[in-house]
Design a protein that fits this description.
The chain contains 9 helices and 18 strands. With about 300 residues, the protein is an alpha+beta fold. It folds into 3 domains: about 80 residues, Uridine Diphospho-n-acetylenolpyruvylglucosamine Reductase, domain 2; about 130 residues, Uridine Diphospho-n-acetylenolpyruvylglucosamine Reductase, domain 3; about 60 residues, Alpha-Beta Complex (Uridine Diphospho-n-acetylenolpyruvylglucosamine Reductase, domain 1). The protein has a 5-stranded antiparallel beta sheet. Strands 1-2-5-3 form a 4-stranded mixed beta sheet. A 3-stranded antiparallel beta sheet has the order 15-16-17. Strand 11 and strand 12 form a beta hairpin. Helix 3 runs antiparallel to helix 7.
């Protein structure tokens, strides 16, 4: 349980805004996860910064989620304060020589790509197929269709404990394949917003490529509740190929299954537990290591009490 003095304090300052015993399955793309003792929604970048700085000052631990993809929350849930990031403002810089989009970190990647398309701005077509939020995409260097955050990010606005606001250029994120310095070092930093590079195109051309990407994704990746790609691709290979070659497509534990469409996805067929997902992950890693000598590295992160 969350410390009683922390819960009492949160109840006093946030009142009816504070949600208690909310199940994380309602906020995660995999539709699994136990309860959060306390949760609050941040609806703007300023609000997100205010809440996080306040929690650091009071030494109340917290976890932030946006779209809820790329994470597996335990069945026991979390005792830390859950901050649900719904800061979604998007602004456009009309500098014709160097157009930019500035977006808050709770913006979904699909919404961001769609708004760029309406403006006739290219460069974010790959993002239309990405689940989750901008903050998560920046944190994990999300990518698809030969595009990624490292290729679009210009700068990121952060809040850091005892320091406050900082703006980092993209170079300071030290991006590598599906990771950043924030993810590798588990730094205490909260992404508030970011500036992204785009280029002048046309709504017709942008939507044409977005539709093409969407068709490709539908034909190669499974529908249904999932956390996204479970494992990172090892050097010069693909996690999905290794899992399929190990004969694991369609393998089930409980009501979760390694997708018959793409072996790097685990599908929740309903009323599943995070424990079963984790068991299937561990079994997959064991079999791939046993048969091919490759230790698959998780792309998702485990959250909560295990």
């Amino acid at each position: 349980m969350m410390k009683s003095e922390n819960l009492t304090y949160l109840q006093e300052i946030y009142g009816k805004r504070l949600q208690e015993k909310s199940r994380l399955s309602a906020y995660t793309s995999g539709r699994v996860g136990g309860p959060a003792d306390a949760a609050i929604i941040a609806r703007s970048g300023d609000e997100l910064a205010e809440i996080t700085m306040h929690m650091w000052e009071r030494k109340i631990p917290f976890i932030i989620i946006g779209g809820g993809s790329n994470i597996l929350v335990s069945d026991k849930g979390i005792r830390d304060l859950l901050i649900i990031n719904r800061a979604r403002s998007v602004q456009y810089n009309e500098n014709l020589k160097s157009p930019r989009l500035r977006a808050e970190s709770g913006t979904t990647m699909n919404d961001l790509a769609q708004k760029a398309a309406l403006l006739g701005m290219g460069g974010l077509e790959w993002a239309a197929t990405i689940p989750g939020s901008l903050g998560g995409a920046i944190y994990g260097n999300a990518g698809a269709f030969k595009g990624d955050m490292a290729g679009n990010l210009v700068s990121v606005d952060l809040i850091l404990p005892e320091i406050g606001h900082q703006t980092w250029p993209v170079e300071k994120m030290e991006y590598a394949y599906r990771t950043s310095i924030l993810k590798r070092e588990h730094q205490a930093a909260v992404i508030i917003s970011a500036e992204l590079s785009v280029f002048i195109s046309s709504t017709l051309e942008v939507r044409k490529l977005m539709n093409q990407n969407s068709r490709t994704r539908r034909s190669t990746q499974p529908p249904g509740a999932s956390m996204g790609s479970i494992f990172k691709n090892p050097p010069d290979d693909f996690a999905g190929r290794l899992i399929e070659s190990a004969g694991l497509k369609g393998k089930r534990i409980g009501n979760v299954e390694i997708s018959p469409v793409h072996a790097n996805f685990i599908i929740n067929h309903g009323l599943s537990s995070a424990c079963d997902v984790k068991k299937l992950i561990e079994f997959t890693r064991y079999e791939v290591s046993r048969k091919f000598g490759v230790d698959l590295e998780l792309e998702i992160e485990l959250v909560g009490e295990w």
